Amino acid sequence: MVKRSLPKGVHRVRRKLKCGAKYHFYAWRGGPKFWEAVIPYPVEPEFFQAFSACTAPQKSSANLVDDLVTDFLSSDAMPPRARSRKDVELWVKRFQDEFGSDPTAMFEEAASRAELNTWRKRWINSPKQYDMAGTHAVKLLNWAVGEGRLKEHYCHKLKKLYVADRSEIVWTPADIKAFNKVAPQWVQRILMLGCETGLRVSDLVEVRKDHFEDTAHGKRLRFKTGKRGRVAYIPVTNGLQSLLDATPESQETLLVGQLGDPLQSRWASNQITKWRREAKVSSWEDGREKTLADTRGTAATRLLNADLSLRQIATLMGWSVRYAAQVIEIYARVSPDESDLVLARLEAAKARTQQL
User: Fold this and answer.
1) What region holds the Tyr recombinase domain (predicted)?
2) Which of 25, 87, 100, 133 could form a disulfide with 66 if both were Cys (CB 3.0 to 4.6 A apart)?
3) CATH no., domain 173-355
């Protein structure tokens, strides 16, 4: 049997029809279509002539994805924080490894959506990574459209698999007590600051003493959050005040490492994980382990007890009012020592919210 092949670089797509199938031939993946046939390997001279007529000159002048990625990585579209930049670079370079030699114009074709989904299926067994691949690819393509490098693209609103709902996971007073029995003092401070403020991990390590200011009724923490760039006003609870009082005068940030050096957010999270395991803090009912990020539910309850409204708590946390109430109710359910007081305050807060 004669072995047949296509000219190097030709991209063939099979389309199903009611009467059978038809093959579409493109000069390269994402390139112009130059031929249609009902057989997978055309042999007529016109096929090869059509391929020659539309390849070399066009491909050599095409704007390649390689160039697009290089320009994107050096643009002001890159996030300012080192951790975020590292994440973007990782995924955009993976995208470059796959599509770098292709022309950017391929993403102006509807078929490119399937190409992109096929690529990110490499991470189908890790829903979070599968979603990240699509998110950063779309971020790059959106930038290309905004810069006039593409007219449009067909990769908007890609399907996502990862569902991040940890609302029911909270640190109870018993968890915190067990943790503090074994963790070093500098690690206890990380957990306490998370439980008293509800700030994200990346923001916790940035809190300084000069972020605190006096008010008519006490003190508050005035902090511009990193993710949304909003200014958060957090009342100083008793726990937060004790943390502030115990901070040495020579120490600018509230959180430092064992040797007094500045903390990185990932290191802070890892320390909570390490000492939580040492303390044998129980996992949630479904086996998920508690993390530093899960202190936000505890913090929401602290803020409710500090007389913040549900609307204020929701704004601070980036939640809906309904979600904030749900998280606080879960906290009360798993913290029997505080449940009656918390639930009473929660019902009063709901009533005030409904009257607005």
Assistant:
1) 166-344
2) 100
3) 1.10.443.10
